[in-house]
Amino acid sequence: MIKPLMFTYLAMVIIVIIMDFKHLKQAAAINRWLSYVVIAGSTGIWFYVTHLSKTFFITVWLTHWIQRNLPLP
Fold this sequence. Notes:
The chain is mainly α and 73 residues long. The protein has helices at 2-26, 29-50, 58-69.
């Protein structure tokens, strides 16, 4: 039930990206690259989550990533 909804969401995201591509081309280079990185990261997380057989919580993943990469006392 969830996967068809996720694929519908992905299709809508692709349509929005195609519609906004002209605006992304006109943006400054750093904004354009940041947008591409966010889009690629979100797509990677989406594929990772949809291909798991167990429950995956993004907040747990982000917590592990932040703890590993930020110098906390």
